[in-house]
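ok trying this again, last paste got cut off
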Amino acid sequence: MVHKLIEFSLRNRMVVLLLAAGLLVWGFFSIKKNPVDAIPDLSENQVIVFTEWEGQSPQIIEDQVTYPLVSNLQGIPKVKNVRGSSMFGMSFVYVIFDDDVDVYWARTRVLERLNYSQRLLPAGITPTLGPDGTGVGHILWYSLDAKDMDLGEQRALQDWYIKLALQTVPGVAEVASFGGFEKQYQLVVDPVKLQFYNVSLMEVMNKVKANNNDVGGRKFEMSDMAYIIRGLGYIKNKEDIESIAVGNYNGIPVRIKDIGTVQMGGDLRLGVFDRDGEGEVVGGIVVMRYGENADKVINAVKDKMKDVQKGLPEGVTFKIDYDRSDLIEAAIANIKDKLIEEMSIVALIVIIFLFHWRSALSIIIQIPVTIAISFIILNLLGVSSNIMSLTGIALAIGVIVDNGIIMSENAYRHLSEWQNSHTSKS
């Protein structure tokens, strides 16, 4: 078989050259399309199911949320393992799939099973899927430099403007906000006044919820004109909450301001984010979607941040705290330099030792063609260009050259034997 392949190649040199040129061009485009990252993604193929139940102990979460979910997610096809974790007010379930399973197929199957599992959970508890990212998906951390803005306003700016804008960048799975205070209206109720007006705390909660709502009406025609009737009831400030009626006392409405006070405050925090010991900051973590090109996504996010910057209040700017593109570019540039150095040194040594440019050229041509074919295979297998894969290619260059030298030496030996045999006959 090998003898016939060699014979075919020698008799059809143009076909071999065209095939090599085609592979070289294909490999060049594969290099352009191949995802670039600093490190290989070795995380498991998993789907995370997150459930929140505020105020409940880990044991309650385990018994009523985590255990029913883990039990019902076990039967999904191509699942290797299902792991559950319960903590105060939160439940995490990790569904581990086989490595060859498409991540979006896996998310669809988990979502189908969650629709069935919903009836086993307590009322009002809804599990959600985590972002379609991986364990190495945190590609960019940024914070806001806004000295003249308080932490609550910074967090509102991050949640309702910056985060929504950055999530539109292709390849971004999620932008997770951190730091600051999440603004909320806080109602501080006086229990003595509740008892005096004979109003329960549950009635106060229900009345506040019912009064924060818009209602629709119907069309009203008058004088050949049609009017749409609707009730506007959304809360816009503290005074709207203070005016909500929660009961009556001897025919007089009892309002929120009669039983307590309303204030603007921040939600309960479990930690703070400090930058270089200079004080708290507000920012976000950009999470890359599974299988995307990290370097390309980071550059796209930076371009989007320049557009978002135009709409920020005066004096508010972005500050990059962690940028993986620096590590990616440094690592890839270092490996590329080493590849070029190795190819140049190997070519020079081959030319010096063989001292025959045609033989040396046949060996040197194998290096770029083989590297191009390697990137074709990397794309087919879904492997990114990273430190590990490029280092493997660099180490293989020596083996490629060794094969070429051995084949050249073997050809020279056979030619020499053939010449000697014909010389002796003559």
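PB: full thing came through this time. Residues 387-425 form the longest helix (39 residues).
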